[in-house]
UniProtKB/TrEMBL annotation:
Organism: Micromonospora humidisoli
Residue ranges occupied by any DUF2786 domain in the UniProt entry: 193-231
Extent of Basic and acidic residues compositional bias: 39-48
The protein's name: DUF2786 domain-containing protein
Superkingdom to which the source organism belongs: Bacteria
Stored InterPro entries: DUF2786, DUF7168
Any Pfam family the entry gives: DUF7168
Length: 425
């Protein structure tokens, strides 16, 4: 009988191929090969002594999964990216399975890791929940309420997916890489206080059912963010070790992935960042300075909640009741994103004018120009082949409703244009 690694290799290769029947045969062989031996079938050996017994297969699968995720780190992937892509393409249960592999990979890491790495793993609740690699898969199946056959299939499909993932932009050095424990980000208690106030305002915006009130709270949050960004820029311009542009990835899953990517882009632009949408991978990459990136993540999360709630209200209010149509929803979300983007940029420009008066345009403008140039240079380095895509709006009623939800005072004269969106070629 082939050993565990040979059975796993055959199954993964078949799953990555195009012959569905062959893939099923190889998966069946893995299931049979890893089945517990019945009394008298082992020729006097213990049940776990077979070359492809269940404990050997479990341990081999975990080793292969850890090796597969570890190979992705120098190729630009981060723990949240891996969990997102597995969940997006295979489903929630395989997504949870790969989180176990991430936990095992972290446990095997011999050196220090950057704090942001552990923060991502904590957000995923990635922790070792098993005693010994040999019992890992069985324990996972019990936790998931599934059987061994389904667990083996999930593990093989995850391995096949991980093996085919392309390299992506390296935004931050992974564990073991050069500069891996050097983390650049907002520093000091001032930033924390400002962001706490922003979070409080956004929570109020999300909880209200009055669009005008939500807009007021969101606008005030953007004003605070813009002032904080300018203060950081002036401080960093004189720092011995100033911040440098970095990047974050924000998920843009279906439905309406294009509209979600447009919202990311609008929020990013209002906060002096660049955004590139990777539609096939389900995320937008935002590049900018650390404080601005944190602001983009906060605002985008809140605005997506607000947009979804407003869209559901719009469905109920539209002619014909709450019937859902894709064209209406997409048009609504496009309009919401564009109008909110205008409001956010207006708040940023107002803060810029006030700061120029307070500190002097001759001091502020060169600093802002230098930071914009640094972000653009980072963009050109990581994404030299980006193209522009157009997102077309096809439902005028959805467009009107989305614009109204973002700004009740701007209904007159609005028309549904197409919008360029930066994306990977």
């Amino acid at each position: 009988m082939p050993d565990a690694d040979a059975l796993i290799t055959a199954a993964v290769t078949a799953v990555r191929g195009t012959d569905v029947r062959d893939a099923e045969r190889k998966l069946d062989r893995l299931v049979v090969g890893s089945a517990p031996a019945r009394p008298g079938d082992d020729g006097g050996r213990g049940a776990d002594d077979g070359a492809a017994g269940p404990t050997a297969v479990d341990a081999a699968l975990l080793r292969r999964l850890v090796a597969a995720v570890h190979r992705l780190w120098p190729r630009g992937w981060q723990p949240v990216d891996v969990a997102r892509i597995v969940t997006r393409r295979l489903g929630a249960r395989p997504g949870r399975l790969v989180v176990d592999a991430l936990a095992a990979d972290r446990a095997a890491e011999p050196g220090p890791v950057p704090q942001w790495w552990d923060d991502q793993l904590a957000d995923l609740d990635a922790r070792v929940r098993w005693d010994g690699d040999a019992g890992w898969l069985g324990g996972w199946a019990v936790r998931e309420g599934t059987d061994r056959i389904a667990a083996l299939r999930d593990a093989v499909e995850v391995l096949a997916l991980l093996a085919g993932l392309p390299p992506i932009a390296v935004l931050r050095p992974p564990p073991g890489g050069h500069g891996a424990v050097t983390v650049t980000g907002p520093r000091g208690p001032s930033g924390s206080r400002v962001l706490d106030r922003v979070r409080a305002l956004l929570a109020k915006a999300e909880s209200t059912t009055f669009p005008a009130e939500a807009e007021a709270f969101t606008g005030k949050a953007q004003e605070l963010i813009a002032r904080h960004s300018l203060e950081r820029a002036l401080v960093e311009s004189a720092a011995t070790h100033p911040d440098h542009p970095g990047g974050v990835r924000i998920g843009t899953d279906a439905p309406y992935a294009g509209a979600k990517a447009l919202l990311v882009q609008e929020v990013a632009t209002a906060n002096r960042c660049e955004s590139v949408w990777s539609d096939d991978l389900g995320f937008a990459t935002v590049l900018g300075f650390p404080a601005d990136l944190e602001a983009v993540e906060l605002l985008h999360t809140s605005l997506l909640v607000q947009a979804t709630a407003a869209m559901l209200r719009g469905r109920r209010e539209r002619r014909g009741g709450g019937r859902r149509t894709k064209a209406y929803d997409e048009a609504f979300l496009h309009a919401f994103a564009l109008r909110i983007g205008e409001r956010l940029r207006a708040a940023t420009e107002s803060a810029d004018r006030q700061a120029a008066q307070d500190t002097g345009a001759d001091r502020l403008l060169p600093v802002l120009a230098a930071r914009s140039g640094a972000v653009r240079e980072r963009m050109d380095t990581l994404f030299p082949g980006v193209t522009r895509a157009r997102l077309t709006v096809r439902d005028a009623e959805g467009w009107q409703s989305g614009t109204s939800a973002a700004d009740r005072a701007s209904l007159a004269g609005s028309a549904p244009p197409s919008r360029p969106l930066t994306g990977r070629r």
